[in-house]
């Protein structure tokens, strides 16, 4: 049982290049999330999805796009990378919470992205 | 969004009980309080979650007063391996963009 797997683990890009980060979960979770974490800071939500074919903006969505074509995968795209997007990116998933309760998120181990 | 405030850092010794308090004055009625632990180069790991009063599991306790404007994570008898950053999260996964991580508390446990 792998949980949440992020690919790649490390990547260096040049300004203006594009790339896609892949997140895969094998827990059949409805919800998936992309966060970024900058040095000395907490995690900030970029985009999230509440089900296959759905996406929504989080706290810091500018410069990123996402897609959820399959329930188990959540892709994060950078169309034109900028140095300000140098960060560690974490993907998470969680089951749909029953009414009147909540469910914790399960995180991957991150993708460390450097943009020169 | 419910903003959270935690101490930046705490120091302790092995075998002691550690209490980390998180303030969340504008918590919403539907919000839950969730604590995560994060080691370097790893993703956050779920510790405990609660809505009100006290919750206990095999690794920690969570105390939430009646007004829910703060919460305290209690780690009994810490060890060196508990050295990590602890995050208080207030919100609901059902709302997606209502999730807010605090700045985290760096706990350092020494012998």
Summarize the topology:
The complex is a heterodimer of chains A (about 120) and B (about 110).
Chain A: E1 4-7, E2 10-13, E3 19-25, E4 31-37, E5 43-49, E6 56-57, E7 65-67, E8 73-78, E9 87-94, E10 106-107, E11 111-115
Parallel strand pairs in A: 2-11
Antiparallel strand pairs in A: 1-3, 3-8, 4-5, 4-9, 5-6, 7-8, 9-10, 9-11
Chain B: E1 9-13, E2 18-23, E3 32-38, E4 45-50, E5 53-56, E6 61-64, E7 70-75, E8 84-91, E9 100-101, E10 105-110
Parallel strand pairs in B: 1-10
Antiparallel strand pairs in B: 2-7, 3-4, 3-8, 5-6, 6-7, 8-9, 8-10
Summary keywords:
heterodimer, A: 116 residues, mainly beta, Immunoglobulin-like, seven-stranded mixed beta sheet, 11 strands, 0% helix, globular, B: 111 residues, six-stranded mixed beta sheet
Describe the structure.
The complex is a heterodimer of chains A (116) and B (111). In chain A, 37% of the residues are buried. Chain A has one domain (4-96, 106-115): Immunoglobulins (Immunoglobulin-like, Sandwich). In chain A, strands 2, 4, 5, 6, 9, 10 and 11 form a 7-stranded mixed sheet that branches. In chain A, strands 1-3-8-7 form a 4-stranded antiparallel sheet, with no helix packed on it. In chain A, strand 5 and strand 6 (56-57) form a beta hairpin. With 116 residues, chain A is mainly beta. Chain A has strands spanning 4-7, 10-13, 19-25, 31-37, 43-49, 56-57, 65-67, 73-78, 87-94, 106-107, 111-115. Chain A starts with a strand and ends with a strand. In chain B, strands 1, 3, 4, 8, 9 and 10 form a 6-stranded mixed sheet that branches. Chain B has a 4-stranded antiparallel sheet with strand order 2-7-6-5, with no helix packed on it. Chain B has one domain (9-110): Immunoglobulin-like (Sandwich), CATH 2.60.40.10. Chain B contains no helices and 10 strands. Chain B has strands at residues 9-13, 18-23, 32-38, 45-50, 53-56, 61-64, 70-75, 84-91, 100-101, 105-110. Classes of the chains: A mainly beta (116), B mainly beta (111). The interface between A and B is medium-sized, with 30 and 24 residues.
